[in-house]
Every structure is written in structure tokens, then in C-alpha cells.
Amino acid sequence: MTALPPGVPAAAANASSGSSTPPASGSSLTPGPSGATPASVDELLALLAGQRYLADTSLGTVLYLGLRLGKPILLEGEAGVGKTEVAKVLAAALGRRLIRLQCYEGLDVSSALYEWDFARQMLEIRLADAAGPVERAALATTLYSERFLLRRPLLDALTADPAGAPVLLIDELDRTDEPFEAFLLEILSDFQVSIPELGTVRAPAPPIVILTSNRTREIHDALKRRCLYHWIDYPDAARELAILAARAPDVPARLAAQIVAFVHKLRATDLFKLPGVAETLDWGQALVALGSVELDPATVNATLGVLLKYQDDLARITGPTAHAMVDAARGAG
Prior knowledge:
Helices cover about 45% and strands about 10% of the residues. The chain is an alpha/beta fold. The chain has 3 domains: about 10-110 and about 150-230, 3-Layer(aba) Sandwich (Rossmann fold); about 115-150, no CATH class; about 250-330. It has a 5-stranded parallel sheet with strand order 2-5-8-1-9. A hairpin with a 3-residue loop joins strand 6 (about 190-195) and strand 7 (about 200). Helix 1 (about 40-50) packs across helix 2 and helix 10 (about 235-245) crosses helix 11. The longest helix has 15 residues, at about 255-265. The radius of gyration is 24 Å and the shape is elongated. It starts with about 40 loop residues before the first helix and ends with a helix. About 40% of the residues are buried.
């Protein structure tokens, strides 16, 4: 059995790393007690461990403070280190609903907050016209009411929920532009939004907000000041081995050690895009599917596309370089 990294609670023995734990293919999360709130950092770490997410103390502390203080949490790090998974396992561990807003270039308020159901409104107008002046007068007072409102993720997160405040994941915020960041300031400061036709909508309890960024651009200081901040880095070898054992238990122990050693050598190489933990898990599952029990140069060269996503990186590693890395990894494993 792989030794756990220092500072990890014993309850996490069968969990994966909270600093870097993308989900394995086909994995599922087990809902925790509805509305449960941890009383300490250790209790939160244990709850996450129950979802196979082995969080280090620093991440656990930031998440705990976010829950206690009602502050949004901004997670930055390279792609594939498990930022999005934090929100997923936190929602499952606390028994809360997860609401996800996937950011992209050009994301606007109507897609993120609310829209009016114009098709339904037009249908109601035509029916009222056919029914006569009384119906038209009645419709005029309800045309912009809740029943015609299409709630998008941000407005949905401000709605009361019997299970407790939901977890709002604003994913890959760096893909949007600065005007959208400015729009978020009111929500992240006061957990309220203004709808001209209805007035101000306030959350009865602040949602648990997790924002993620791959740092393709800098997030504005005004937004950062409203958040607690944590950088999720690539895990060390011991932690990544624990992740692989938990998320891909079918990978033999010797092969797992060689996989981790090989991936860490790749990350020490000058590549355009270093493989994340998600790629480590995918590669482990791919090698098992091919019947591998240990690394060999031919199989590694044939499956490098699972780890590396750019042709220049593949050209740099394929061949003698990969062969040398395999020899080193087999020695380490």
C-alpha cells in the first residue's frame, strides 16, 4: 500500500489527492449528508476523502475558511490538476446541489443570469388577444413575472434550496472578458442581482462559490479581492501515486509506480503542455486496457498521445528520449 503524504488524515487512506484529482472515467460521487457542514478542517478533509479526494491541509484550510466566512474561493493552476473536481466533490460531500457555469469567450449576462421566455410570452399574448380585452389586461400585469423567467446558473444559485445553499462553480473564468468579471462583482460581494422588471433578488443564504482559472490571462484585482485564493500545483510523486491507486485501482502497483516516475520525468522536460493528473489517470487506464504490467518502449511510444496533446511535444519525446525515460522509470518502479 502506498504511504500517504504528511499531513493527510487517516480517513483519507482510500481517497485520492485533493490538490490534484480529476475523476477517473466512469467514477461516481456518493452524496453526503444533506446540508452537512464540517466543524473543522480535519472534518472537511475527511468528508472529501469519503469522495476519494485526498486534499492537502492548505487546500482543506482554504475550503473550510470559505465555508465559515461565506467567501468565494478562486482556484488557479494548470489544466488537468483537479480544480473543477474540487467543486464537484465538495457538493457531493456536503449533500448540496452543484450549479455549474462553464465560461467561454463572449459569455453574456443573458446566458449566465436570466432570460425572458419570449416564445412563451408571444404565445400568451396571442391567446390573450383571441380571448378579448379582459385577458389582455390581466396578461399585462403578469407578462414579466416568475413564470416567464428562465433562470440561468447565476440566478439559480441565488434561489433557496431545502438542502442548503448550493455550490456554484464558475469554471474557467479566464476564458471570459473583463466586462463579465465586472458584472460578477455585485454577485460575489452581496450575493444579489438586479432584474429591472422584478427588482433585486437576494440569496437567502450565500451559495458556496468556487471559481477556477487556468491563468490564460490575469483575473482582475477587484474580483480577486473578493475571494480566498489557492494555487493547485502538480502533486509530488507520493501523492500522485496515491491518486492513481484510488482513482484507477486496476493499475498494478509496479506499473503505477513506473507511470508516476515517467510522468514526473516528462514534467521536468521543456514541453509546450505538461501532462496533468487527468492524463496520468487516463494513461494508467489505457495501459491496463492494453494488458501492460510494466512500461516498455514500444507501448509507451504508441500511447504517448494519451499524455501529450501537441505534435511538437510528441516529436520531442517519441523514440530514444522515451526509451531512456522508460529505463529510468522502470528502475524507479
